[in-house]
Amino acid sequence: MKHSTQKNKKLKYPLIYYIIECLFNMAILRSKEIRKLEDKETDKRLNELRLELAKERGNIRIGGTVTSTGRIREIRRTVARILTIRKEKELGLVKQKTAVHKTEVKTNK
């Protein structure tokens, strides 16, 4: 019989581990990541997020356990972020990065 110390070992600071886990799981897709994606990939991610949101909401309605209370909020925010960036692209509001060169000012002495 194998003895596992990992399962029996209690965490000394469980709240700290929970906070760290939440910080790393906060943003599903950041704005920079969304802008780098192609349109097809963005549509795919949007559909996946909407499906996940529907599953989470359905799970709550039937009285199931919620995996993470902030997960629904983060999914909603990510969906809104994707739709906003998509609309910016359609309207041409996305700023193009332009190279700014510093010009040297020469003074005559």
What is the CATH topology assignment of the domain at 29-91? Answer: Helix Hairpins
Helix content: 55-70%
Mean pLDDT: 77
Q: What is the radius of gyration?
A: 23 Å
Strand element count: 0
Instruction: Please state roughly what percent of the residues sit in beta strands, choosing from under 5%, 5-15%, 15-25%, 25-35%, 35-45% or over 45%.
Output: under 5%
**Which stretches of 5+ consecutive residues score pLDDT under 50?**
1-8
N- to C-terminal distance = 89 Å
Q: Return the CATH class of the domain at 29-91.
A: Mainly Alpha
What is the 3D shape?
flat
H and E order: HHHHH
Number of helices: 5
Provide the structure class: mainly alpha
Q: Can you summarize the main beta sheet?
A: none
What would you say the CATH architecture of the domain at 29-91 is? Orthogonal Bundle
Description:
With 109 residues, the chain is mainly alpha-helical. It has a domain at 29-91: Helix Hairpins, CATH 1.10.287.310. Helix content is 60%, strand content 0%. The protein is built from five helices and no strands. The protein has helices spanning 5-8, 14-24, 31-36, 39-61, 71-91. It is flat. The termini are far apart. Mean pLDDT is 77; it is low at 1-8.
Tell me the layout of helices and strands.
Elements: H1 5-8, H2 14-24, H3 31-36, H4 39-61, H5 71-91
Helix pairs in contact: 4-5
Provide key terms for this protein.
single chain; 109 residues; 0% strand; mainly alpha; flat; disordered N terminus; Helix Hairpins
